[in-house]
Amino acid sequence: MIQFSDNNGTVTLRLTGRFDFRLIKEFHEMLKKDPRTWVVDFSGVEYVDSSALGMLLLLRERVRGDAARVQLRGLHGQPRDVIVMAKFDRMFKVD
Amino acid sequence: MPYAKRGPLTLSEYARRALGADALRMLRRVELECQTREEAEELADVIAGLLPDPVQGRLGLIELLLNAIEHGNLEIGRTLKCQLLRELRFEAEIEARMQQDQYRDRRVRVRVELMYPFIEIEIRDDGRGFAWRNALAAGFTSDDTPNGRGIALASRACFPTLEYLDPGNVAIVKLAWPR
To answer: pTM of the full predicted structure?
Structure first.
């Protein structure tokens, strides 16, 4: 499940458990928002797959590739390993 | 409960219990099949329990199984998937193709051969295959496309020995438990 909050032009997506292909439909609903910046909070995420990488890239496309407008927060464990392996730490702002 | 209702344990139930080294030494073969992505998850959970690293093993299995379903059985090519994801129509297309005559009976068949400490996994779909050598050699794409990273993830992070049989509808993974 994806929880979100919208605060002064920043939409924060809070994910828990598995961030994988099962979330595609729900994530696509989130993409209909048009905030100034996005924050994806990974602190509750234990596992990602390649579909999660694809969803992050769709988010990046929504802000026309402006890395400063998509922030990945709270990465740890397997999700961090996959993000780094896929070189996404160079494509997104990672805290 | 009547015996008939309890029924025999399925191979997958045996596999689920075969987590200890003693049981692994006796288990020789597991065969499973799936059709949907949800079934693929359950199948991956069963087989991951047999692998040295269940978490990364599960990830690799999911990537290969979803490829087999989406690209193999449902014939959604990489370019089309990219387009569908960008137009937020990918899920609808999967559901639509699952109902079409030419795709609805297709399956992914998985065979696991165990010769402790060695394990071989074969994942076979009913599709036409793909240019697997290029895909394996390419690694992680550096472009911005929202798909095309599954095989790189499976081969780089999970299964270093991943290869395919021509024309590319059979994936083979070989693993070994550390002695």
So the answer is: 0.88
